[in-house]
Protein backbone atom coordinates (compact mmCIF):
# COMPACT_ATOMS: atom_id res chain seq x y z
CA UNK A 1 0.00 0.00 0.00
CA UNK A 2 1.43 3.38 -1.04
CA UNK A 3 1.97 6.17 1.45
CA UNK A 4 -0.14 9.34 1.12
CA UNK A 5 3.07 11.34 0.61
CA UNK A 6 3.61 9.61 -2.71
CA UNK A 7 0.18 10.72 -3.90
CA UNK A 8 0.88 14.40 -3.26
CA UNK A 9 4.26 14.78 -4.96
CA UNK A 10 4.70 17.13 -7.94
CA UNK A 11 5.42 15.09 -11.09
CA UNK A 12 8.81 15.44 -12.73
CA UNK A 13 7.23 16.67 -15.99
CA UNK A 14 5.49 19.52 -14.16
CA UNK A 15 8.73 20.51 -12.43
CA UNK A 16 10.55 20.46 -15.77
CA UNK A 17 7.82 22.57 -17.41
CA UNK A 18 7.85 25.09 -14.54
CA UNK A 19 11.64 25.37 -14.75
CA UNK A 20 11.41 25.78 -18.51
CA UNK A 21 8.80 28.53 -18.16
CA UNK A 22 10.86 30.36 -15.54
CA UNK A 23 14.12 30.31 -17.50
CA UNK A 24 12.73 30.56 -21.07
CA UNK A 25 9.22 32.01 -21.11
CA UNK A 26 9.85 34.80 -18.60
CA UNK A 27 12.95 36.08 -20.48
CA UNK A 28 10.93 35.98 -23.72
CA UNK A 29 8.15 38.04 -22.16
CA UNK A 30 10.69 40.40 -20.61
CA UNK A 31 12.44 40.79 -23.97
CA UNK A 32 9.06 41.49 -25.59
CA UNK A 33 8.32 44.15 -22.97
CA UNK A 34 11.72 45.80 -23.43
CA UNK A 35 11.42 45.62 -27.23
CA UNK A 36 7.97 47.17 -27.06
CA UNK A 37 9.25 50.00 -24.86
CA UNK A 38 12.19 50.64 -27.21
CA UNK A 39 10.01 50.56 -30.31
CA UNK A 40 7.42 52.89 -28.76
CA UNK A 41 10.17 55.31 -27.75
CA UNK A 42 11.66 55.02 -31.23
CA UNK A 43 8.27 55.77 -32.80
CA UNK A 44 7.84 58.81 -30.60
CA UNK A 45 11.30 60.07 -31.50
CA UNK A 46 10.78 59.30 -35.17
CA UNK A 47 7.42 61.06 -35.13
CA UNK A 48 8.99 64.06 -33.47
CA UNK A 49 11.91 64.10 -35.93
CA UNK A 50 9.53 63.77 -38.86
CA UNK A 51 7.38 66.60 -37.51
CA UNK A 52 10.46 68.76 -36.95
CA UNK A 53 11.52 68.12 -40.53
CA UNK A 54 8.04 68.95 -41.82
CA UNK A 55 7.89 72.12 -39.74
CA UNK A 56 11.34 73.13 -40.93
CA UNK A 57 10.23 72.67 -44.54
CA UNK A 58 7.27 74.94 -43.82
CA UNK A 59 9.59 77.53 -42.32
CA UNK A 60 11.96 77.28 -45.28
CA UNK A 61 9.04 77.70 -47.68
CA UNK A 62 7.92 80.83 -45.80
CA UNK A 63 11.48 82.15 -45.82
CA UNK A 64 11.69 81.49 -49.56
CA UNK A 65 8.47 83.43 -50.22
CA UNK A 66 9.68 86.28 -48.03
CA UNK A 67 13.04 86.31 -49.80
CA UNK A 68 11.13 86.42 -53.07
CA UNK A 69 9.40 89.60 -51.87
CA UNK A 70 12.72 90.98 -50.68
CA UNK A 71 14.21 90.33 -54.13
CA UNK A 72 11.35 92.32 -55.67
CA UNK A 73 12.13 95.21 -53.32
CA UNK A 74 15.82 94.98 -54.27
CA UNK A 75 14.93 95.36 -57.94
CA UNK A 76 13.55 98.79 -57.01
CA UNK A 77 16.13 99.58 -54.30
CA UNK A 78 19.17 98.96 -56.53
CA UNK A 79 17.64 100.35 -59.77
CA UNK A 80 20.00 103.28 -60.53
CA UNK A 81 18.03 104.19 -63.65
CA UNK A 82 14.89 104.61 -61.61
CA UNK A 83 16.92 106.66 -59.14
CA UNK A 84 18.01 108.99 -61.96
CA UNK A 85 14.41 109.46 -63.09
CA UNK A 86 13.18 110.13 -59.59
CA UNK A 87 15.90 112.73 -58.93
CA UNK A 88 14.71 114.76 -61.94
CA UNK A 89 12.09 117.23 -60.75
CA UNK A 90 11.25 118.67 -64.15
CA UNK A 91 7.56 118.89 -64.89
CA UNK A 92 5.76 118.16 -68.06
CA UNK A 93 7.24 115.69 -70.49
CA UNK A 94 9.97 114.45 -68.18
CA UNK A 95 7.62 113.50 -65.37
CA UNK A 96 5.21 111.97 -67.85
CA UNK A 97 7.98 109.96 -69.44
CA UNK A 98 9.24 108.82 -66.04
CA UNK A 99 5.80 107.64 -65.03
CA UNK A 100 4.46 106.13 -68.20
CA UNK A 101 7.59 104.91 -69.92
CA UNK A 102 9.61 103.59 -67.03
CA UNK A 103 8.04 103.53 -63.56
CA UNK A 104 4.69 101.97 -64.43
CA UNK A 105 6.14 99.34 -66.86
CA UNK A 106 8.82 98.59 -64.28
CA UNK A 107 6.25 97.93 -61.56
CA UNK A 108 4.13 95.82 -63.90
CA UNK A 109 7.18 93.78 -64.80
CA UNK A 110 7.91 93.19 -61.10
CA UNK A 111 4.35 92.05 -60.48
CA UNK A 112 4.67 89.50 -63.27
CA UNK A 113 8.05 88.28 -62.11
CA UNK A 114 7.08 87.43 -58.58
CA UNK A 115 5.56 84.01 -57.79
CA UNK A 116 3.02 85.39 -55.32
CA UNK A 117 0.23 87.93 -55.62
CA UNK A 118 1.53 91.16 -54.15
CA UNK A 119 0.47 94.80 -53.82
CA UNK A 120 3.25 97.35 -54.33
CA UNK A 121 2.76 100.85 -52.99
CA UNK A 122 5.50 103.39 -53.95
CA UNK A 123 5.71 106.71 -52.12
CA UNK A 124 7.86 109.30 -53.95
CA UNK A 125 9.39 112.59 -52.81
CA UNK A 126 9.23 113.88 -56.43
CA UNK A 127 5.89 115.64 -56.54
CA UNK A 128 6.15 116.17 -60.31
CA UNK A 129 5.35 112.53 -60.83
CA UNK A 130 1.64 111.96 -60.83
CA UNK A 131 0.00 109.54 -58.44
CA UNK A 132 -1.35 106.30 -59.77
CA UNK A 133 -3.49 104.19 -57.48
CA UNK A 134 -6.02 101.39 -57.38
CA UNK A 135 -9.50 102.87 -57.11
CA UNK A 136 -11.02 99.78 -55.43
CA UNK A 137 -12.30 100.37 -51.97
CA UNK A 138 -11.84 96.73 -50.97
CA UNK A 139 -8.74 94.55 -50.83
CA UNK A 140 -7.25 94.39 -54.36
CA UNK A 141 -5.58 91.08 -53.47
CA UNK A 142 -8.87 89.55 -52.50
CA UNK A 143 -9.51 88.37 -56.03
CA UNK A 144 -6.08 86.86 -56.37
CA UNK A 145 -4.61 89.67 -58.54
CA UNK A 146 -1.47 91.72 -58.02
CA UNK A 147 -1.69 95.50 -57.93
CA UNK A 148 0.45 98.63 -57.50
CA UNK A 149 -0.01 102.23 -56.37
CA UNK A 150 2.14 105.36 -56.75
CA UNK A 151 1.72 108.05 -54.10
CA UNK A 152 3.53 111.08 -52.84
CA UNK A 153 5.51 110.74 -49.64
CA UNK A 154 3.48 113.38 -47.91
CA UNK A 155 0.68 110.84 -47.52
CA UNK A 156 2.71 108.91 -44.94
CA UNK A 157 4.47 111.67 -43.08
CA UNK A 158 2.09 111.27 -40.16
CA UNK A 159 2.16 107.45 -40.12
CA UNK A 160 3.79 106.00 -37.03
CA UNK A 161 5.30 103.14 -38.95
CA UNK A 162 7.04 105.67 -41.22
CA UNK A 163 8.22 108.09 -38.58
CA UNK A 164 9.60 105.26 -36.44
CA UNK A 165 11.28 103.45 -39.30
CA UNK A 166 14.89 102.57 -38.44
CA UNK A 167 17.94 104.49 -39.60
CA UNK A 168 19.03 103.56 -43.09
CA UNK A 169 21.99 101.28 -43.64
CA UNK A 170 22.49 100.82 -47.32
CA UNK A 171 21.18 97.50 -48.56
CA UNK A 172 20.25 96.29 -45.07
CA UNK A 173 17.42 98.31 -43.64
CA UNK A 174 13.98 96.79 -44.18
CA UNK A 175 11.13 95.74 -41.97
CA UNK A 176 8.18 93.34 -42.01
CA UNK A 177 5.11 94.57 -40.18
CA UNK A 178 1.33 94.60 -40.16
CA UNK A 179 0.32 98.24 -40.55
CA UNK A 180 -2.86 100.19 -41.30
CA UNK A 181 -5.46 97.80 -42.71
CA UNK A 182 -3.12 94.79 -42.95
CA UNK A 183 -4.71 93.03 -39.97
CA UNK A 184 -8.16 93.70 -41.38
CA UNK A 185 -7.36 92.18 -44.75
CA UNK A 186 -4.98 89.54 -43.44
CA UNK A 187 -1.87 91.07 -45.03
CA UNK A 188 1.70 91.66 -44.02
CA UNK A 189 3.90 94.38 -45.49
CA UNK A 190 7.55 94.68 -46.35
CA UNK A 191 8.67 98.29 -45.68
CA UNK A 192 11.79 99.72 -47.29
CA UNK A 193 13.17 103.10 -48.36
CA UNK A 194 13.97 104.11 -51.92
CA UNK A 195 17.35 105.82 -51.73
CA UNK A 196 19.80 107.79 -53.86
CA UNK A 197 23.28 106.38 -53.31
CA UNK A 198 25.00 108.50 -55.91
CA UNK A 199 26.59 110.71 -53.27
CA UNK A 200 29.61 109.25 -51.55
CA UNK A 201 29.18 108.47 -47.85
CA UNK A 202 25.62 109.72 -47.92
CA UNK A 203 22.39 107.94 -48.63
CA UNK A 204 19.40 110.18 -49.33
CA UNK A 205 15.82 109.00 -49.16
CA UNK A 206 13.91 109.75 -52.35
CA UNK A 207 10.91 107.59 -51.64
CA UNK A 208 9.44 104.68 -49.74
CA UNK A 209 8.06 101.33 -50.80
CA UNK A 210 5.50 99.06 -49.22
CA UNK A 211 5.00 95.57 -50.63
CA UNK A 212 1.98 93.72 -49.27
CA UNK A 213 1.28 89.99 -49.46
CA UNK A 214 -1.55 87.97 -48.03
CA UNK A 215 -0.71 85.95 -44.99
CA UNK A 216 -2.50 82.97 -46.55
CA UNK A 217 -0.15 83.14 -49.54
CA UNK A 218 2.91 83.65 -47.39
CA UNK A 219 1.98 80.82 -45.06
CA UNK A 220 0.38 78.59 -47.66
CA UNK A 221 2.71 75.73 -46.78
CA UNK A 222 1.57 75.77 -43.12
CA UNK A 223 -0.79 72.79 -43.12
CA UNK A 224 -1.37 70.73 -40.00
CA UNK A 225 -2.48 67.72 -42.08
CA UNK A 226 1.13 67.31 -43.22
CA UNK A 227 2.07 66.46 -39.65
CA UNK A 228 -0.86 64.28 -38.73
CA UNK A 229 -4.55 64.15 -38.02
CA UNK A 230 -5.53 66.21 -35.00
CA UNK A 231 -2.32 68.27 -35.07
CA UNK A 232 -2.46 72.04 -34.68
CA UNK A 233 -0.04 74.68 -35.99
CA UNK A 234 0.06 78.21 -34.60
CA UNK A 235 1.80 81.23 -36.10
CA UNK A 236 2.68 83.61 -33.28
CA UNK A 237 4.21 87.06 -33.46
CA UNK A 238 6.93 88.36 -31.20
CA UNK A 239 4.30 89.08 -28.51
CA UNK A 240 2.90 85.54 -28.74
CA UNK A 241 -0.26 86.80 -30.38
CA UNK A 242 -1.99 84.41 -32.71
CA UNK A 243 -1.46 85.46 -36.32
CA UNK A 244 -2.61 82.36 -38.11
CA UNK A 245 -3.40 78.77 -37.33
CA UNK A 246 -4.05 75.46 -39.00
CA UNK A 247 -5.89 72.51 -37.54
CA UNK A 248 -8.94 71.77 -35.40
CA UNK A 249 -9.06 75.20 -33.71
CA UNK A 250 -12.29 76.92 -32.71
CA UNK A 251 -11.56 80.47 -33.81
CA UNK A 252 -15.02 81.68 -32.83
CA UNK A 253 -14.25 81.03 -29.19
CA UNK A 254 -11.05 82.99 -29.37
CA UNK A 255 -8.96 79.92 -28.69
CA UNK A 256 -5.30 80.73 -28.21
CA UNK A 257 -2.18 78.68 -27.78
CA UNK A 258 -2.48 78.73 -24.00
CA UNK A 259 -5.98 77.25 -24.29
CA UNK A 260 -5.10 74.75 -26.99
CA UNK A 261 -1.96 73.47 -25.26
CA UNK A 262 -2.86 70.11 -23.71
CA UNK A 263 -1.02 67.72 -21.49
CA UNK A 264 0.67 64.94 -23.41
CA UNK A 265 1.04 66.90 -26.65
CA UNK A 266 4.39 66.99 -28.40
CA UNK A 267 5.32 70.67 -28.89
CA UNK A 268 7.71 71.70 -31.67
CA UNK A 269 8.76 75.25 -32.50
CA UNK A 270 10.52 76.88 -35.43
CA UNK A 271 11.46 80.56 -35.61
CA UNK A 272 10.80 82.58 -38.76
CA UNK A 273 13.89 84.79 -38.57
CA UNK A 274 12.99 87.83 -40.71
CA UNK A 275 9.74 88.31 -38.79
CA UNK A 276 10.87 87.17 -35.38
CA UNK A 277 7.69 85.07 -35.43
CA UNK A 278 7.32 81.47 -34.33
CA UNK A 279 5.63 78.44 -35.85
CA UNK A 280 4.41 76.20 -33.03
CA UNK A 281 3.13 72.68 -33.75
CA UNK A 282 1.09 70.74 -31.21
CA UNK A 283 1.08 67.02 -32.04
CA UNK A 284 -1.53 65.06 -30.08
CA UNK A 285 -0.39 61.99 -28.23
CA UNK A 286 -2.99 60.01 -30.17
CA UNK A 287 -0.70 60.01 -33.22
CA UNK A 288 2.11 58.31 -31.35
CA UNK A 289 -0.30 56.30 -29.22
CA UNK A 290 -1.94 54.87 -32.31
CA UNK A 291 1.41 53.77 -33.69
CA UNK A 292 2.48 52.63 -30.23
CA UNK A 293 -0.74 50.65 -29.90
CA UNK A 294 -0.05 48.99 -33.25
CA UNK A 295 3.48 48.15 -32.15
CA UNK A 296 2.15 46.93 -28.82
CA UNK A 297 -0.37 44.70 -30.56
CA UNK A 298 2.31 43.25 -32.82
CA UNK A 299 4.64 42.80 -29.86
CA UNK A 300 1.93 41.06 -27.85
CA UNK A 301 1.09 38.91 -30.88
CA UNK A 302 4.76 38.04 -31.38
CA UNK A 303 5.21 37.25 -27.68
CA UNK A 304 2.01 35.21 -27.70
CA UNK A 305 3.08 33.23 -30.76
CA UNK A 306 6.58 32.80 -29.31
CA UNK A 307 5.04 31.69 -26.01
CA UNK A 308 2.83 29.18 -27.80
CA UNK A 309 5.81 27.84 -29.78
CA UNK A 310 8.07 27.70 -26.72
CA UNK A 311 5.26 26.19 -24.63
CA UNK A 312 4.71 23.52 -27.28
CA UNK A 313 8.44 22.81 -27.41
CA UNK A 314 8.61 22.82 -23.60
CA UNK A 315 5.59 20.54 -23.38
CA UNK A 316 7.13 18.16 -25.89
CA UNK A 317 10.45 18.11 -24.04
CA UNK A 318 8.85 17.79 -20.61
CA UNK A 319 6.50 15.04 -21.77
CA UNK A 320 9.39 13.26 -23.51
CA UNK A 321 11.43 13.13 -20.31
CA UNK A 322 8.35 12.75 -18.09
CA UNK A 323 7.34 9.61 -19.97
CA UNK A 324 10.74 8.10 -19.29
CA UNK A 325 10.58 9.08 -15.62
CA UNK A 326 6.98 7.77 -15.40
CA UNK A 327 8.10 4.42 -16.79
CA UNK A 328 10.86 4.28 -14.21
CA UNK A 329 8.40 5.21 -11.42
CA UNK A 330 5.91 2.63 -12.73
CA UNK A 331 8.55 -0.10 -12.54
CA UNK A 332 9.62 1.04 -9.07
CA UNK A 333 5.97 1.00 -7.91
CA UNK A 334 5.67 -2.54 -9.28
CA UNK A 335 8.81 -3.51 -7.38
CA UNK A 336 7.35 -1.91 -4.25
CA UNK A 337 4.15 -3.93 -4.67
CA UNK A 338 6.16 -7.11 -5.07
CA UNK A 339 5.98 -7.53 -8.85
CA UNK A 340 9.55 -7.78 -10.13
CA UNK A 341 8.59 -9.00 -13.60
CA UNK A 342 8.22 -5.47 -15.10
CA UNK A 343 10.99 -4.28 -17.44
CA UNK A 344 11.73 -1.03 -19.30
CA UNK A 345 13.65 -0.42 -22.50
CA UNK A 346 14.99 2.99 -23.60
CA UNK A 347 16.63 3.75 -26.91
CA UNK A 348 19.80 5.77 -27.10
CA UNK A 349 22.90 5.99 -24.99
CA UNK A 350 22.09 8.36 -22.16
CA UNK A 351 21.55 8.27 -18.41
CA UNK A 352 17.99 6.94 -18.78
CA UNK A 353 19.29 3.93 -20.71
CA UNK A 354 21.81 3.21 -17.96
CA UNK A 355 19.08 3.55 -15.32
CA UNK A 356 16.78 1.18 -17.24
CA UNK A 357 19.54 -1.43 -17.54
CA UNK A 358 20.31 -1.13 -13.82
CA UNK A 359 16.62 -1.40 -12.88
CA UNK A 360 16.10 -4.42 -15.13
CA UNK A 361 19.12 -6.17 -13.63
CA UNK A 362 17.99 -5.26 -10.12
CA UNK A 363 14.45 -6.52 -10.77
CA UNK A 364 15.74 -9.76 -12.18
CA UNK A 365 18.15 -10.32 -9.28
CA UNK A 366 15.60 -9.39 -6.60
CA UNK A 367 12.92 -11.49 -8.31
CA UNK A 368 15.27 -14.48 -8.33
CA UNK A 369 16.14 -13.97 -4.68
CA UNK A 370 12.48 -13.58 -3.72
CA UNK A 371 11.50 -16.73 -5.61
CA UNK A 372 14.31 -18.55 -3.92
CA UNK A 373 13.26 -17.29 -0.47
CA UNK A 374 9.60 -17.92 -1.31
CA UNK A 375 10.26 -21.51 -2.32
CA UNK A 376 12.30 -21.95 0.82
CA UNK A 377 9.46 -20.55 2.95
CA UNK A 378 6.92 -22.72 1.13
CA UNK A 379 9.01 -25.78 1.79
CA UNK A 380 9.39 -24.74 5.41
CA UNK A 381 5.64 -24.05 5.73
CA UNK A 382 4.78 -27.40 4.20
CA UNK A 383 7.18 -29.12 6.54
CA UNK A 384 5.60 -27.35 9.53
CA UNK A 385 2.10 -28.27 8.35
CA UNK A 386 3.10 -31.87 7.91
CA UNK A 387 4.69 -31.83 11.32
CA UNK A 388 1.57 -30.37 12.95
CA UNK A 389 -0.67 -32.80 11.07
CA UNK A 390 1.51 -35.68 12.12
CA UNK A 391 1.14 -34.53 15.73
CA UNK A 392 -2.71 -34.42 15.52
CA UNK A 393 -3.32 -37.83 13.91
CA UNK A 394 -1.55 -39.95 16.53
CA UNK A 395 -3.28 -38.05 19.33
CA UNK A 396 -6.74 -38.68 17.87
CA UNK A 397 -5.91 -42.29 17.02
CA UNK A 398 -4.73 -42.94 20.56
CA UNK A 399 -8.03 -41.69 22.07
CA UNK A 400 -10.16 -43.64 19.58
CA UNK A 401 -8.27 -46.89 20.10
CA UNK A 402 -8.74 -46.45 23.83
CA UNK A 403 -12.48 -46.19 23.29
CA UNK A 404 -12.46 -49.31 21.06
CA UNK A 405 -10.53 -51.16 23.71
CA UNK A 406 -13.13 -50.31 26.34
CA UNK A 407 -15.98 -51.47 24.04
CA UNK A 408 -14.21 -54.75 23.39
CA UNK A 409 -13.65 -55.25 27.10
CA UNK A 410 -17.35 -54.88 27.78
CA UNK A 411 -18.35 -57.01 24.80
CA UNK A 412 -20.29 -54.29 22.94
CA UNK A 413 -19.57 -55.70 19.52
CA UNK A 414 -22.16 -53.66 17.59
CA UNK A 415 -20.86 -50.37 18.90
CA UNK A 416 -17.31 -51.53 18.35
CA UNK A 417 -18.13 -52.45 14.77
CA UNK A 418 -19.77 -49.08 14.12
CA UNK A 419 -16.82 -47.21 15.70
CA UNK A 420 -14.28 -49.11 13.59
CA UNK A 421 -16.20 -48.25 10.40
CA UNK A 422 -16.41 -44.57 11.34
CA UNK A 423 -12.72 -44.59 12.23
CA UNK A 424 -11.89 -46.05 8.83
CA UNK A 425 -14.04 -43.39 7.11
CA UNK A 426 -12.41 -40.66 9.16
CA UNK A 427 -8.91 -41.72 8.18
CA UNK A 428 -9.87 -42.26 4.57
CA UNK A 429 -11.09 -38.66 4.42
CA UNK A 430 -8.22 -37.44 6.55
CA UNK A 431 -5.51 -39.02 4.44
CA UNK A 432 -7.17 -37.76 1.20
CA UNK A 433 -4.32 -39.09 -0.93
CA UNK A 434 -1.81 -37.12 1.09
CA UNK A 435 -3.31 -33.67 0.35
CA UNK A 436 -3.34 -31.06 3.09
CA UNK A 437 -5.90 -28.83 1.35
CA UNK A 438 -9.34 -30.37 0.98
CA UNK A 439 -12.85 -29.14 0.09
CA UNK A 440 -14.96 -27.98 3.04
CA UNK A 441 -17.43 -30.74 2.11
CA UNK A 442 -14.79 -33.33 3.06
CA UNK A 443 -13.97 -31.47 6.28
CA UNK A 444 -17.66 -31.60 7.27
CA UNK A 445 -17.74 -35.35 6.52
CA UNK A 446 -14.60 -35.79 8.65
CA UNK A 447 -16.15 -34.09 11.65
CA UNK A 448 -19.41 -36.04 11.11
CA UNK A 449 -17.41 -39.32 11.17
CA UNK A 450 -15.70 -38.21 14.35
CA UNK A 451 -19.02 -37.21 15.94
CA UNK A 452 -20.47 -40.59 15.01
CA UNK A 453 -17.52 -42.27 16.73
CA UNK A 454 -18.11 -40.17 19.85
CA UNK A 455 -21.88 -40.71 19.81
CA UNK A 456 -21.20 -44.46 19.87
CA UNK A 457 -19.28 -43.78 23.03
CA UNK A 458 -21.63 -41.24 24.70
CA UNK A 459 -24.98 -42.35 23.31
CA UNK A 460 -27.92 -40.04 24.00
CA UNK A 461 -25.79 -37.90 26.33
CA UNK A 462 -24.38 -36.09 23.30
CA UNK A 463 -26.61 -34.02 20.96
CA UNK A 464 -25.03 -32.45 17.86
CA UNK A 465 -26.76 -29.94 15.54
CA UNK A 466 -25.44 -28.97 12.13
CA UNK A 467 -26.10 -25.58 10.48
CA UNK A 468 -23.95 -25.67 7.36
CA UNK A 469 -24.67 -23.38 4.38
CA UNK A 470 -24.30 -25.54 1.21
CA UNK A 471 -22.70 -22.61 -0.60
CA UNK A 472 -19.42 -23.15 1.27
CA UNK A 473 -19.08 -26.85 0.35
CA UNK A 474 -16.87 -26.17 -2.69
CA UNK A 475 -14.48 -23.81 -0.92
CA UNK A 476 -11.13 -25.10 0.29
CA UNK A 477 -9.68 -25.50 3.74
CA UNK A 478 -6.79 -27.20 5.44
CA UNK A 479 -7.97 -30.48 6.92
CA UNK A 480 -8.75 -31.22 10.53
CA UNK A 481 -9.69 -27.74 11.75
CA UNK A 482 -13.10 -28.70 13.25
CA UNK A 483 -12.45 -32.12 14.84
CA UNK A 484 -9.95 -30.92 17.48
CA UNK A 485 -12.52 -28.46 18.89
CA UNK A 486 -15.27 -31.09 19.03
CA UNK A 487 -12.80 -33.38 20.77
CA UNK A 488 -11.86 -30.58 23.20
CA UNK A 489 -15.55 -30.07 24.09
CA UNK A 490 -16.03 -33.76 24.87
CA UNK A 491 -12.84 -33.99 26.91
CA UNK A 492 -12.98 -30.73 28.87
CA UNK A 493 -16.42 -29.19 28.45
CA UNK A 494 -18.66 -32.09 29.49
CA UNK A 495 -20.70 -31.26 32.55
CA UNK A 496 -22.51 -34.24 34.00
CA UNK A 497 -23.63 -36.90 31.52
CA UNK A 498 -25.21 -34.67 28.87
CA UNK A 499 -23.93 -31.98 26.46
CA UNK A 500 -25.37 -30.12 23.43
CA UNK A 501 -23.10 -29.15 20.54
CA UNK A 502 -23.85 -26.94 17.52
CA UNK A 503 -21.64 -26.77 14.40
CA UNK A 504 -22.24 -23.74 12.10
CA UNK A 505 -20.73 -22.91 8.71
CA UNK A 506 -21.50 -19.61 6.90
CA UNK A 507 -20.12 -17.27 4.24
CA UNK A 508 -19.62 -13.70 5.48
CA UNK A 509 -18.09 -10.98 3.24
CA UNK A 510 -15.76 -13.34 1.37
CA UNK A 511 -14.78 -15.20 4.51
CA UNK A 512 -15.85 -18.67 5.58
CA UNK A 513 -16.81 -18.63 9.26
CA UNK A 514 -17.17 -21.80 11.37
CA UNK A 515 -18.66 -21.75 14.85
CA UNK A 516 -18.57 -24.61 17.36
CA UNK A 517 -20.89 -23.78 20.24
CA UNK A 518 -21.44 -25.93 23.36
CA UNK A 519 -23.27 -25.60 26.66
CA UNK A 520 -20.52 -27.17 28.70
CA UNK A 521 -18.62 -25.98 31.75
CA UNK A 522 -16.92 -23.13 29.85
CA UNK A 523 -13.53 -21.67 30.71
CA UNK A 524 -12.02 -18.58 32.23
CA UNK A 525 -10.27 -15.75 30.36
CA UNK A 526 -6.96 -16.84 31.86
CA UNK A 527 -7.43 -20.35 30.47
CA UNK A 528 -8.20 -18.91 27.01
CA UNK A 529 -5.03 -16.77 27.20
CA UNK A 530 -2.98 -19.84 28.08
CA UNK A 531 -4.42 -21.72 25.08
CA UNK A 532 -2.81 -19.25 22.66
CA UNK A 533 0.36 -18.55 24.64
CA UNK A 534 3.35 -20.32 22.99
CA UNK A 535 4.95 -21.08 26.34
CA UNK A 536 1.95 -22.07 28.46
CA UNK A 537 -0.05 -23.90 25.79
CA UNK A 538 2.33 -26.85 25.85
CA UNK A 539 0.31 -28.30 28.68
CA UNK A 540 -3.10 -26.75 27.90
CA UNK A 541 -5.20 -27.11 24.72
CA UNK A 542 -2.40 -28.30 22.44
CA UNK A 543 -4.82 -29.25 19.63
CA UNK A 544 -6.53 -25.80 19.65
CA UNK A 545 -3.25 -23.89 19.27
CA UNK A 546 -2.19 -26.40 16.62
CA UNK A 547 -5.26 -25.52 14.46
CA UNK A 548 -4.75 -21.78 15.01
CA UNK A 549 -1.11 -22.00 13.94
CA UNK A 550 -1.88 -24.06 10.84
CA UNK A 551 -4.58 -21.62 9.65
CA UNK A 552 -2.35 -18.56 10.14
CA UNK A 553 0.64 -20.31 8.57
CA UNK A 554 -1.30 -21.22 5.44
CA UNK A 555 -3.78 -18.36 4.98
CA UNK A 556 -2.18 -15.43 6.79
CA UNK A 557 -2.23 -13.62 10.10
CA UNK A 558 -5.71 -12.11 9.58
CA UNK A 559 -7.30 -15.57 9.84
CA UNK A 560 -7.35 -18.10 12.67
CA UNK A 561 -9.26 -19.10 15.82
CA UNK A 562 -11.07 -16.99 18.39
CA UNK A 563 -12.66 -18.36 21.61
CA UNK A 564 -15.40 -16.76 23.66
CA UNK A 565 -16.36 -18.54 26.91
CA UNK A 566 -17.77 -18.03 30.36
CA UNK A 567 -17.60 -20.57 33.18
CA UNK A 568 -20.94 -22.31 33.68
CA UNK A 569 -22.43 -21.05 30.39
CA UNK A 570 -20.44 -22.86 27.72
CA UNK A 571 -17.96 -21.96 24.98
CA UNK A 572 -18.14 -20.57 21.42
CA UNK A 573 -15.20 -21.16 19.04
CA UNK A 574 -15.04 -19.00 15.87
CA UNK A 575 -12.81 -20.14 13.00
CA UNK A 576 -12.19 -17.84 10.02
CA UNK A 577 -10.59 -18.84 6.72
CA UNK A 578 -10.67 -17.14 3.28
CA UNK A 579 -13.34 -18.24 0.77
CA UNK A 580 -11.04 -19.85 -1.79
CA UNK A 581 -12.68 -21.87 -4.58
CA UNK A 582 -11.19 -25.13 -5.80
CA UNK A 583 -10.56 -23.72 -9.30
CA UNK A 584 -8.62 -20.74 -7.91
CA UNK A 585 -6.53 -23.03 -5.80
CA UNK A 586 -5.68 -25.21 -8.79
CA UNK A 587 -4.76 -22.11 -10.82
CA UNK A 588 -2.34 -21.13 -8.12
UniProtKB/TrEMBL annotation:
Residues 319-371 form the HAMP domain. The chain crosses the membrane at residues 20-40, 297-317. Residues 471-581 form the Histidine kinase domain. The keyword Membrane applies. It is an enzyme of class 2 (transferase). It is a multi-pass membrane protein. GO terms for molecular function: protein histidine kinase activity. The keyword Metal-binding does not apply. It is found in: Cell membrane. Keywords: ATP-binding, Cell membrane, Kinase, Membrane, Nucleotide-binding, Phosphoprotein, Transferase, Transmembrane, Transmembrane helix, Two-component regulatory system. Its EC number is 2.7.13.3. It catalyses: ATP + protein L-histidine = ADP + protein N-phospho-L-histidine. It holds the Pfam family His_kinase. InterPro entries: Bact_2-comp_sensor_kinase, HAMP_dom, HATPase_C_sf, HATPase_dom, His_kinase_dom, Sig_transdc_His_kin_internal. This is histidine kinase. It comes from Paenibacillus xanthanilyticus.
Amino acid sequence: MKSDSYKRYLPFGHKLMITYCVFIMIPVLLAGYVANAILVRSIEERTKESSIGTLKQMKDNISYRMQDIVRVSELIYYDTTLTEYLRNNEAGWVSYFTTSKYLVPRLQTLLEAVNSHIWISVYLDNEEIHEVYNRQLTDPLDGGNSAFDIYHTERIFNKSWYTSFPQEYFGQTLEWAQIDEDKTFGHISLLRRIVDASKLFKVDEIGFMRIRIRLEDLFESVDSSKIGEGSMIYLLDESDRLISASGPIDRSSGQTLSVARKAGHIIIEEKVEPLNWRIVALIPSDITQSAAQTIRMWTVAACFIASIVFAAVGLFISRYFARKVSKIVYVLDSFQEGDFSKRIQFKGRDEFTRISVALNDMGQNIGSLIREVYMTNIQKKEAELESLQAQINPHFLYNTLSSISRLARFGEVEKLHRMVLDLAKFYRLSLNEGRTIIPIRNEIEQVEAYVNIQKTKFGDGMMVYYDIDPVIHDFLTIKLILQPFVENVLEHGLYGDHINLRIVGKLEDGTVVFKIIDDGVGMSAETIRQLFDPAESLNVGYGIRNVHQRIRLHFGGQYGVKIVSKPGFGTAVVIRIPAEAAVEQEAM
